[in-house]
Amino acid sequence: MTETTPLDAARAAMDRAPEDTPARLAFYRTLAASELFLLLSREPEGDETVEPEVFPVENARYVLAFDREDRLTAFTGAAAPYAALSGRGLAGMLAGQGLGLGLNLSVAPSETLLPAEAVDWLSETLGADPDQVEDHPETLDAPRGLPDRLLTGLDAGLAAAGGRARCAYLAAVGYRGGGRGHMLAFIDAAPGAEPALTRIVGEALTFSGIEAGTLDVAFFAPSDPIAARLARVGLRFDLPQAGTPPASAPKPPGSDPDAPPILR
Structural domain tally of the chain? Predict the structure, then answer.
């Protein structure tokens, strides 16, 4: 039996409720977080430049990507050059190029044609920078009133952020200035991981479909007094603790979602 991938499930949910905005946003969230195999016209040069195979479809141009390597091979009928990268990285690479994305064409129930406008929208949505503010938490309580689709999005995003922090706590927070809301606090974040973790939280919020929703993000050391308070009242998310690859190991094109390969 053919394995159902997260993209298959997300596309099926969207097809069952074509007018449901959260289901549509969940598909885009899954696409952004998925590892994709981009069909190339030739082997990539080094780890920075790729040349995708471009197909004309109804007066538009599309590149093709698949969420499993064997699906790419099933489409081409033979071994073919490809670059593995995240959906987030692929959207950033294609943005502004006038290229659409053909996903799993002819080989899976999740086959989708995303026009260039949709790819640009996805890239812009993923690239939105959060606002930075300075405030001090005064009260912490258990989170309440948050929709399940936001919690699901956070869980999925953080599960793919292995090695970037020990854990995170979601809590209701009150600030000295009188503001109230919810905060996701990361404990023991890896050096330099803050932007990527903040982006993951922002994407989960955006693709949850919550109108005008906000979720504060903070970073604390395990020794900070607030870490113990968060552990008592917060909803805990454990991040996978990925092993560190050897420093000499080559990095394939697209392996860093924050630095997608250059489109040639």
Answer: 2
Which residues, including other chains, have CB under 8 Å from residue 178's CB and lie 6 or more apart? none
Q: What is the DSSP letter of 44?
A: -
Q: Are 224 and 185 in contact (CB under 8 A)?
A: no
Of 81, 117, 86, nearest to 101 by C-alpha is: 117
* Cβ atoms 237, 243 nearer than 8 A: no
Tokens of 110: 């999740």
Using left for φ > 0, alpha for ψ between -120 and 50, and beta otherwise, residue 209 falls in: left
Q: Is 250 part of a structural domain of the chain?
A: no
What pTM, to 2 d.p., does this model score? 0.70
| Residue pLDDT, tens place only, 189-248 | 999 999 889 888 888 888 876 654 678 999 999 999 999 999 999 999 999 876 544 344
Helices 116-126, 87-94: crossing angle, 10 deg rounding = 120
- Name the residue range of residue 120's domain: 6-127
Q: Are strands 262-263 and 49-50 parallel, antiparallel or unpaired?
A: parallel
Which residues are within 8 A (CB) of 42 and not within 5 positions of it... i.e. 6 or more apart? 51, 81
235 token code pair: 């909803």
Q: From residue 159, how far is each of 143, 210, 240 by CA, in Å?
A: 20, 21, 6
Residues 93, 147: one domain? no
| 144 and 101 part of one domain | no
User: In the 8-state DSSP scheme, what is residue 109?
Assistant: T
User: Among candidates 238, 228, 210, which has minimal Cα distance to 140?
Assistant: 228
Give the H or E element holding residue 49: strand 49-50
156 vs 34: CA distance, rounded Å:
10
